[in-house]
Amino acid sequence: MIISAIIYGTYYSSIPKDFIKVENEILYFEERIRWESETGGNTGHISMPTWYEPIISYNYLDIKYMYKAKINISLDAPDFNKSIEIFISPKNPEDARHKLSE
Amino acid sequence: MPDTNFQNNLPKKFTTASVYETSDYIGFSELDENLKILVSSLKVKYLIFKYERKDKKTLLGLYTNFNFWLESEEKKLILLDCKINRNTLYDFLSILNKFCQENIIILDNHFEKDGYRIDILKKQIVRKIYKEEN
User: Fold this and answer.
1) Interval B85-122: pLDDT, tens
2) N or C end: fewer C-beta atoms under 10 angstroms in chain B?
3) Which letter, b or e, does each residue of B15-27 get, where b requires 16 or more Cβ atoms within 10 Å of its Cβ?
Protein backbone atom coordinates (compact mmCIF):
# COMPACT_ATOMS: atom_id res chain seq x y z
CA MET A 1 0.00 0.00 0.00
CA ILE A 2 2.85 2.37 0.85
CA ILE A 3 4.56 1.54 -2.44
CA SER A 4 1.39 2.23 -4.44
CA ALA A 5 0.99 5.53 -2.58
CA ILE A 6 4.55 6.50 -3.50
CA ILE A 7 3.97 5.55 -7.16
CA TYR A 8 0.69 7.49 -7.15
CA GLY A 9 2.36 10.54 -5.61
CA THR A 10 5.29 10.44 -8.00
CA TYR A 11 2.98 10.05 -11.01
CA TYR A 12 0.85 13.08 -10.19
CA SER A 13 3.64 15.31 -8.92
CA SER A 14 5.60 15.12 -12.16
CA ILE A 15 4.56 17.09 -15.21
CA PRO A 16 5.12 15.26 -18.53
CA LYS A 17 6.93 17.16 -21.28
CA ASP A 18 3.98 17.12 -23.67
CA PHE A 19 1.73 18.91 -21.15
CA ILE A 20 0.93 22.56 -21.80
CA LYS A 21 0.25 25.39 -19.40
CA VAL A 22 -3.27 26.85 -19.34
CA GLU A 23 -4.82 29.90 -17.74
CA ASN A 24 -6.74 29.12 -14.59
CA GLU A 25 -8.75 30.61 -11.79
CA ILE A 26 -9.45 29.55 -8.23
CA LEU A 27 -13.21 29.08 -8.04
CA TYR A 28 -13.50 28.43 -4.35
CA PHE A 29 -11.74 26.82 -1.43
CA GLU A 30 -12.84 23.81 0.50
CA GLU A 31 -12.26 24.42 4.16
CA ARG A 32 -11.51 21.03 5.66
CA ILE A 33 -11.83 20.61 9.38
CA ARG A 34 -11.06 17.85 11.76
CA TRP A 35 -12.47 18.88 15.03
CA GLU A 36 -11.00 16.57 17.60
CA SER A 37 -9.40 18.21 20.56
CA GLU A 38 -5.88 19.37 20.00
CA THR A 39 -4.46 16.50 21.96
CA GLY A 40 -6.59 13.99 20.09
CA GLY A 41 -8.48 12.97 23.20
CA ASN A 42 -7.96 9.47 24.50
CA THR A 43 -8.93 7.67 21.29
CA GLY A 44 -5.58 8.00 19.61
CA HIS A 45 -6.86 10.23 16.81
CA ILE A 46 -4.19 12.38 15.32
CA SER A 47 -5.14 16.00 15.57
CA MET A 48 -4.74 18.06 12.40
CA PRO A 49 -5.06 21.76 11.81
CA THR A 50 -7.79 23.10 9.54
CA TRP A 51 -6.63 23.43 5.95
CA TYR A 52 -7.88 24.83 2.66
CA GLU A 53 -7.94 23.12 -0.72
CA PRO A 54 -8.42 25.23 -3.87
CA ILE A 55 -10.89 24.12 -6.52
CA ILE A 56 -9.63 25.48 -9.82
CA SER A 57 -11.21 25.99 -13.21
CA TYR A 58 -9.41 26.16 -16.54
CA ASN A 59 -10.44 26.47 -20.15
CA TYR A 60 -9.15 24.54 -23.09
CA LEU A 61 -10.64 24.86 -26.60
CA ASP A 62 -13.64 26.69 -25.15
CA ILE A 63 -14.46 23.90 -22.75
CA LYS A 64 -14.37 24.59 -19.03
CA TYR A 65 -12.82 22.03 -16.71
CA MET A 66 -12.67 21.77 -12.94
CA TYR A 67 -9.52 20.72 -11.20
CA LYS A 68 -9.06 19.37 -7.73
CA ALA A 69 -5.54 18.28 -6.99
CA LYS A 70 -5.06 14.54 -6.59
CA ILE A 71 -2.16 15.33 -4.35
CA ASN A 72 -3.61 17.74 -1.82
CA ILE A 73 -2.78 21.41 -2.02
CA SER A 74 -3.12 22.20 1.63
CA LEU A 75 -3.03 25.90 2.38
CA ASP A 76 -3.35 27.32 5.86
CA ALA A 77 -5.58 30.15 4.63
CA PRO A 78 -7.93 30.68 1.67
CA ASP A 79 -5.75 32.85 -0.56
CA PHE A 80 -7.49 33.65 -3.87
CA ASN A 81 -4.32 35.37 -5.09
CA LYS A 82 -2.27 32.24 -4.70
CA SER A 83 -0.48 31.53 -7.95
CA ILE A 84 -1.03 27.96 -9.09
CA GLU A 85 0.06 26.82 -12.51
CA ILE A 86 -2.06 24.22 -14.27
CA PHE A 87 -0.65 21.94 -16.97
CA ILE A 88 -2.80 19.67 -19.11
CA SER A 89 -2.40 17.00 -21.70
CA PRO A 90 -3.61 18.39 -25.07
CA LYS A 91 -4.68 14.89 -26.02
CA ASN A 92 -6.69 14.47 -22.85
CA PRO A 93 -7.47 17.89 -21.31
CA GLU A 94 -9.03 16.30 -18.23
CA ASP A 95 -5.60 15.02 -17.29
CA ALA A 96 -4.16 17.97 -15.40
CA ARG A 97 -1.35 18.59 -12.95
CA HIS A 98 -0.48 21.60 -10.87
CA LYS A 99 2.59 23.42 -9.75
CA LEU A 100 2.62 25.91 -6.93
CA SER A 101 4.38 29.12 -7.92
CA GLU A 102 6.60 30.94 -5.49
CA MET B 1 -45.28 7.10 19.45
CA PRO B 2 -45.25 9.92 16.94
CA ASP B 3 -48.26 12.17 16.61
CA THR B 4 -49.67 10.82 13.37
CA ASN B 5 -52.21 13.61 12.98
CA PHE B 6 -49.45 16.13 12.97
CA GLN B 7 -47.75 14.41 10.06
CA ASN B 8 -50.56 15.46 7.73
CA ASN B 9 -49.79 19.12 8.34
CA LEU B 10 -46.14 18.87 7.39
CA PRO B 11 -44.64 19.48 3.98
CA LYS B 12 -44.51 16.22 2.05
CA LYS B 13 -40.93 16.60 1.09
CA PHE B 14 -38.65 17.77 3.81
CA THR B 15 -35.06 16.77 4.15
CA THR B 16 -31.99 18.10 5.81
CA ALA B 17 -29.50 16.23 3.63
CA SER B 18 -26.73 17.12 5.99
CA VAL B 19 -24.32 14.52 4.76
CA TYR B 20 -22.82 13.65 1.43
CA GLU B 21 -23.63 10.00 1.61
CA THR B 22 -25.78 8.00 3.94
CA SER B 23 -25.52 4.74 2.04
CA ASP B 24 -23.86 3.09 5.00
CA TYR B 25 -26.88 3.87 7.16
CA ILE B 26 -28.33 0.55 8.23
CA GLY B 27 -31.63 1.59 9.74
CA PHE B 28 -32.79 2.31 13.25
CA SER B 29 -30.81 0.96 16.14
CA GLU B 30 -32.03 0.67 19.68
CA LEU B 31 -30.50 4.08 20.40
CA ASP B 32 -32.37 5.61 17.46
CA GLU B 33 -35.61 4.15 18.70
CA ASN B 34 -34.99 5.51 22.18
CA LEU B 35 -34.37 8.97 20.78
CA LYS B 36 -37.48 8.67 18.67
CA ILE B 37 -39.55 7.77 21.73
CA LEU B 38 -37.96 10.64 23.67
CA VAL B 39 -38.79 13.18 20.96
CA SER B 40 -42.33 11.86 20.68
CA SER B 41 -42.94 11.83 24.42
CA LEU B 42 -41.70 15.40 24.75
CA LYS B 43 -44.23 16.37 22.05
CA VAL B 44 -41.45 18.18 20.29
CA LYS B 45 -42.21 19.01 16.66
CA TYR B 46 -39.69 21.69 15.90
CA LEU B 47 -36.03 21.25 16.71
CA ILE B 48 -33.04 23.46 16.11
CA PHE B 49 -29.61 21.96 15.57
CA LYS B 50 -27.10 24.56 16.70
CA TYR B 51 -23.36 24.74 16.91
CA GLU B 52 -20.58 26.86 18.26
CA ARG B 53 -17.28 26.99 16.42
CA LYS B 54 -14.06 27.56 18.31
CA ASP B 55 -10.88 28.40 16.44
CA LYS B 56 -7.52 28.42 18.07
CA LYS B 57 -4.44 29.68 16.27
CA THR B 58 -1.19 28.00 17.09
CA LEU B 59 2.25 27.95 15.52
CA LEU B 60 1.24 24.75 13.74
CA GLY B 61 -1.93 26.24 12.27
CA LEU B 62 -5.57 26.80 12.99
CA TYR B 63 -7.23 24.19 15.17
CA THR B 64 -11.00 24.06 15.01
CA ASN B 65 -13.42 22.58 17.48
CA PHE B 66 -17.18 22.54 17.57
CA ASN B 67 -19.86 22.21 20.17
CA PHE B 68 -23.19 20.87 18.96
CA TRP B 69 -26.55 20.80 20.62
CA LEU B 70 -30.22 20.37 19.92
CA GLU B 71 -32.67 23.02 21.03
CA SER B 72 -36.40 23.28 21.38
CA GLU B 73 -38.10 26.53 22.33
CA GLU B 74 -34.73 28.03 23.28
CA LYS B 75 -34.02 25.21 25.70
CA LYS B 76 -31.08 22.94 25.19
CA LEU B 77 -32.26 19.36 24.97
CA ILE B 78 -29.22 17.38 24.01
CA LEU B 79 -25.59 18.39 24.05
CA LEU B 80 -23.45 16.34 21.71
CA ASP B 81 -19.95 15.45 22.75
CA CYS B 82 -18.17 15.03 19.43
CA LYS B 83 -14.69 15.85 20.64
CA ILE B 84 -13.80 12.30 21.43
CA ASN B 85 -15.74 10.43 18.80
CA ARG B 86 -16.67 12.25 15.60
CA ASN B 87 -18.94 9.39 14.53
CA THR B 88 -21.43 10.70 17.09
CA LEU B 89 -22.11 13.67 14.85
CA TYR B 90 -22.58 11.55 11.71
CA ASP B 91 -24.92 9.20 13.52
CA PHE B 92 -26.90 11.96 15.18
CA LEU B 93 -27.45 13.91 11.96
CA SER B 94 -28.40 10.71 10.15
CA ILE B 95 -31.05 10.02 12.79
CA LEU B 96 -32.41 13.57 12.63
CA ASN B 97 -32.45 13.35 8.85
CA LYS B 98 -34.43 10.16 9.07
CA PHE B 99 -36.89 11.76 11.50
CA CYS B 100 -37.40 14.62 9.05
CA GLN B 101 -38.03 12.25 6.17
CA GLU B 102 -40.61 10.45 8.27
CA ASN B 103 -42.21 13.80 9.20
CA ILE B 104 -41.70 13.19 12.90
CA ILE B 105 -39.94 16.51 13.37
CA ILE B 106 -39.15 19.71 11.53
CA LEU B 107 -35.50 20.52 11.85
CA ASP B 108 -33.86 23.92 11.58
CA ASN B 109 -30.27 22.94 10.94
CA HIS B 110 -28.04 25.97 11.55
CA PHE B 111 -24.93 23.92 10.83
CA GLU B 112 -26.14 23.13 7.32
CA LYS B 113 -27.53 26.63 6.73
CA ASP B 114 -24.08 28.06 7.34
CA GLY B 115 -22.67 25.86 4.60
CA TYR B 116 -21.11 23.03 6.57
CA ARG B 117 -21.22 19.52 5.19
CA ILE B 118 -19.70 16.23 6.26
CA ASP B 119 -17.36 14.27 4.06
CA ILE B 120 -17.97 10.83 5.43
CA LEU B 121 -15.29 9.12 3.38
CA LYS B 122 -12.56 11.43 4.65
CA LYS B 123 -14.20 11.98 8.01
CA GLN B 124 -13.99 15.74 7.81
CA ILE B 125 -16.27 18.74 8.05
CA VAL B 126 -16.19 20.70 4.80
CA ARG B 127 -17.30 24.20 3.92
CA LYS B 128 -16.98 26.02 0.60
CA ILE B 129 -15.46 29.47 0.73
CA TYR B 130 -16.08 31.78 -2.23
CA LYS B 131 -14.27 34.95 -3.07
CA GLU B 132 -15.98 37.96 -1.58
CA GLU B 133 -17.34 40.34 -4.18
CA ASN B 134 -16.04 43.89 -3.88
Assistant:
1) 667 788 888 888 888 888 888 999 999 999 999 887 77
2) C
3) ebebbeeeeeeee
